[in-house]
Every structure is written in structure tokens, then in C-alpha cells.
Design brief:
With 132 residues, this protein is α+β, with helices and mostly antiparallel strands. It is built from 4 helices and 4 strands. The chain has helices spanning 2-16, 56-59, 63-77, 122-131; strands spanning 37-43, 48-52, 83-95, 100-119. Strands 1, 2, 3 and 4 form a 4-stranded antiparallel β-sheet that branches. The radius of gyration is 27 Å and the shape is flat.
Amino acid sequence: MKKLFFGIFVLLCVASCTTVNKTATTRAITAPVVAATIADLEVAPKKITYTYFPTGAVKRGGLNNVKAAAVSEALARNGNADVLVESQCEVVKYSGFFHRTIVSVTVTGYPATYKNFKSVSVPTAEKLILKK
């Protein structure tokens, strides 16, 4: 009887303390390029500067999230451009006794938009694929 209770006790202890680890494997699949497109980049001649004060929700995403939000907001406020060329970020942090927090991010760069989308010819596409 003692062996039965001991066996059940051991079984419950082992079953209740198991850790489930799930991993996924990826397989490299080569897929052909179906349609390739290139575009011209029209860069504005005037450099913009924008200071962004992140919210708590943006700060929880980390430093890269704050920088991306600052660039996105700068582009939206200055002509709704597509990308910021030669961007530089200046991060101001407050270091308290127990924690550090990001106060502001100042982004500078040249706003640019994509123009004149066109299909790539087969020889050009082959050259681009072979460069990789």
C-alpha cells in the first residue's frame, strides 16, 4: 500500500513540474522572383529636425521601437515622405536611482519619396539575384 501511495506521489510530482518547450525549425526555400520593381528616390534638399516625446506604450517596446516611432512621426509631420535618408537619432535619457527612461528622441535627416515605379528587365533582375 505504501508503494502505491509513493508511486502516485512521485507521478504527481513529476507530472506537475514538467516544462513544455516548443521549438520550430525553418527550412530555406528558394522561391523565384515573380515580379521585380525598382523606383527612383526623390530626396528633399532641406534637412528636417524633429523632436519626439514617446509615450509609455512606445517606451515599453525598447529603444529601437522608440527610434522607429520617432522617424515615422517626423516623416508624417514633414510632408508625409516615405523614408528618411542619412537619418541620425539623438536619444535623451533620464537616469534615476532605480531606473532609466527615455525622455526624448531628436531625429534629423532628409525626407525622400519613391517615384517612377517600373518593372525590372530580366537581365537586370538576374544581376541583382546573382549579387546576393
